[in-house]
């Protein structure tokens, strides 16, 4: 027990002490007009007088930079895609019904709406999902597009035109 106590005292007596008075702090104003504090001197920096106490000297010299805390608005680029039906597909349905499904990339967020365009004209009102069920579509060739609208009704994406052919039996 005495040996451990003597070894501990010997280790404490030869270990270097931390001197709070040796740590220096510098201050300057960067090109953006922001005040920067660092332990690394720079041209034009002034030394800040510190009181002794709670100062711990770092073992490494670290380059410091000012943290930019301003929020950055990321512009999202949306894409609208029609998945069903495939372009130039033939739909055989005597009632003239067709199911249309699309997708939005990167993600369909709350507040956005989809307007289906059928043969160059808006089909019904804009809705909050990308699935449409059309009824009583006439025989022949048709073109569809999906238009993505933001909260204010402004177009932010438009799909490519998809052509489909509706086949219905005719009675003479």
Textual characterization of the structure:
The chain has about 170 residues and is mainly β. The chain has two domains: about 20-50 and about 60-65, no CATH class; about 80-165, Sandwich (Immunoglobulin-like), CATH 2.60.40.10. Helices cover about 10% and strands about 40% of the residues. The strands form three sheets. Strands 5, 7, 8, 10, 11 and 12 form a six-stranded mixed β-sheet that branches. Strands 2-1-3 form a three-stranded antiparallel β-sheet, with no helix packed on it. It has a three-stranded antiparallel β-sheet with strand order 4-6-9, with no helix packed on it. Strand 10 and strand 11 form a beta hairpin. The chain is elongated, with a radius of gyration of 35 Å. The N and C termini lie far apart (about 115 Å). The relative contact order is 0.16.
Secondary-structure map:
Blueprint: H1 2-14, E1 25-29, E2 35-38, E3 46-48, E4 79-84, E5 89-92, E6 98-105, E7 113-118, E8 121-127, E9 131-134, E10 140-149, E11 155-158, E12 162-167
Parallel strand pairs: 5-12
Antiparallel strand pairs: 1-2, 1-3, 4-6, 6-9, 7-8, 7-10, 10-11, 10-12
Short description:
The chain is built from one helix and twelve strands. By secondary structure, the protein is mostly beta strands.
Major sheet: size, sense and barrel closure? 6 strands, mixed
Number of helices, counting only DSSP H or I runs of 4 residues or more: 1
Mean pLDDT: 82
CATH architect. name of the largest domain: Sandwich
Counting DSSP E segments of at least 2 residues, the number of strands comes to 12
CATH class of the largest domain: Mainly Beta
The percent of residues in helical segments reads: under 10%
The succession of helices and strands, N to C, reads HEEEEEEEEEEEE
Please identify which CATH superfamily of the largest domain we are dealing with.
Immunoglobulins
Please tell me how large the radius of gyration is: 35 Å
CATH topology of the largest domain: Immunoglobulin-like
Low-confidence stretches: none
Sheet-strand content, in percent, reads: 35-45%
Distance between the termini: 114 Å
Shape: elongated
Query: Domains counted in the coordinates: how many?
Result: 2
